[in-house]
Each structure stands twice: as C-alpha cells, then as structure tokens.
UniProtKB/TrEMBL annotation, chains A, B:
The keyword Transferase does not apply. It holds the Pfam family RUBY_RBDX. One of its GO terms (molecular function) is oxidoreductase activity. Residues 134-167 form the Rubredoxin-like domain. This is Rubrerythrin. CDD domains: rubredoxin_SM, Rubrerythrin. The lineage of its organism: Bacteria, Thermotogati, Thermotogota, Thermotogae, Thermotogales.
Length: 167, 167
C-alpha cells in the first residue's frame, strides 16, 4: 500500500476509535440524565464508527489469523507496561497532576494482567484450544481484571465486589 | 493542567480507544472461528480499556454537560466531512488504492448523516427534550445510519434491510 494512503488510513482508524469511545462515554452521561433516546443515538452512532474503524483496519491488512491477532495484543500491552505508562505516570508525579497519576496508575496495573492473559491465550490457541476462563470480571473504576471470580474488594482501587462487571 | 501531562493523557486516550477497538474487532473474528471464550476475553478486556479511556477523558475535563458534549460531536463530525475524509478519499483515488477509496467513501457518507443528527439533538436538548428517534438502524457494511425504519437496500453500499443492526 502507498505510504500516504497507509498513513491516512491509520489516522482514520485512530479518529474513528476515539469518536466511538467518546460517544460511548457521552451515552452513559445522557442515560444518567434520563435522556434515554439520546443515549441510544450515541450508542447507535458509536456502532457506525466501529464499522468505519473495522473497514479501515481491514484495508490496512491488520486483521490476521487468531495467533497473529493475539500477538499484536501482547505487543500493545507490553509497550504500555514497559514504555508508555511508566513514563506517563512519572510525568504526572513530577508535574503534581493528581488525577493523571491515578488514571495512569490504574491503567498500568490492569495492562500487566492483560499481557499475561494474552500470553496464556496464545499458548492455548497454539494447542488448538479455546481460552480457559468461564467468566471474566472487570472493575468499572480502574479496569482491574479478574478471572472466574471477582475479588471481595478491588486490589487496585478498593471498589466492592458488587460493582464488578461480569463477562 | 500542565502541558506534558495533558499531551500524554491525550495520547493515552487515543491508545486506549484504539486498543478497545482492536479487541472488539478480534472478538468478532474469534467468535467466527468458534472460540467463544477467547471472544469473551477480548470483549471483557475491551471494556477494561473503555474504563481506562474514560478515566483519562475525565482527567482531561472533556466530559461536559449534555449540550457541550453534543457540540463536541458536531465539531468532530464536521471536521471529518469538510476536511479529513475528502482529503483521504482523494488521496486514495490519486494513489489508486481501491479498498481505501471504499472505506473512506463509506465513512464520509455516514458522517454527513451523523452531523445532522447531532445538530437535531442539540436543538432538542436545548428545548429540554430527549432525542426523537425511537429506533436507529446501522448498516454493518458501511455505517449508513437511518432513523425509525431501515431502508430496503442501503443507499450507500447496497446491503439488504435484513442486515441492518437495530438500536
Ligand atoms: Fe466514522
Ligand atoms: Fe490492556
Ligand atoms: Fe478497581
Ligand atoms: Fe488500558
Ligand atoms: Fe460519525
Ligand atoms: Fe451500507
């Protein structure tokens, strides 16, 4: 693929992903205000942006077979753990930005778990097996990720077991 | 907020949004291969990245009240319609990149509708009302967006009515 087209598709994938995310965040906010149909519109349009992002992703030939997809996840999580979040968290500390210190700390802790999960997934898939967790529980405050059973209290942010979202 | 912390949080929001999107795309692919538990793990971890993105977004003070949120959507869609996608689409044509021509054309057409929907939403919310569409239908091929009833055939990509996703 030509360089400029590739660059633009990558930027378009980033833009669509951020629009999708923003609309999901705004949907929850509208829902809280009792604006149910507005929340539904935000979620519907967020799905349209998902379709656009997926089209750009496919055009970029980034959708591979399952082991390659998992490897790309391991690479992304590892970059965040080893490079990105330690730098962002240290910068927030240096600049005394409290909220940014918390949001980068929360992310860093969860990414460590995600990297291990994806490594396990790659081993299982390479052996011809599906993933092995029946249920996965996510902390809605910090993103802490647990398999099979939610903790009594989130070890990262202290949120109660009842708040965890089950998948 | 200090400049470098702000820059890093913006980059982290982009990174989390793209990770979220990638995991949703991989979840569908795993599901198609019959790997149900792997698909579930991708979706659970995608939700954790949503939590991270939302934390960064809040720390950046980008979550406003409902009219401000809608204005930010109008601005984003308008930029895509007037600046981003016309340039990307023209570049794909110039460079004879067929798939990129299609994926940027599909996005451009849908964003025009989204901008109008958000303008209508802003007027309604300013009058103290909720959005006025009971149902919204999205084309899963191109993201074409219709209110109240799905078209017999997608006017942008030709997908049949039965393929539309209802919200
Ligand atoms: Fe889009
Ligand atoms: Fe992660
Ligand atoms: Fe937590
Ligand atoms: Fe994350
Ligand atoms: Fe849009
Ligand atoms: Fe379509």
């Amino acid at each position: 693929m030509r360089e400029m087209t590739k660059k633009f598709l990558e930027d378009a994938f980033a833009g669509e992903s951020m629009a999708h995310m923003k609309y999901l965040i705004f949907a929850d906010e509208a829902e809280k205000k009792g604006l149910k149909k507005l929340a539904n519109a935000f979620r519907a349009i967020a799905y349209a942006e998902f379709v656009h992002a997926r089209n750009h992703f496919r055009a970029l030939k980034k959708l591979g077979d399952t082991p390659d997809n998992i490897k790309s996840c391991i690479a992304g999580e590892t970059f965040e753990i080893e490079e990105m979040y330690p730098v962002y968290k240290e910068t927030a500390k240096l600049q005394e930005e409290k909220e940014a210190q918390i949001s980068t700390h929360y992310a860093l802790e969860a990414e460590k778990i995600h990297a291990e999960m994806y490594k396990k997934a790659l081993n299982l898939v390479n052996e011809g097996q599906d993933y092995d967790a029946e249920k996965i529980y996510i902390c809605p405050v910090c993103g802490y990720t647990a398999e099979d059973v939610a903790p009594e209290k989130c070890p990262v942010c202290g949120a109660p077991k009842s708040a965890f979202v089950e998948f």
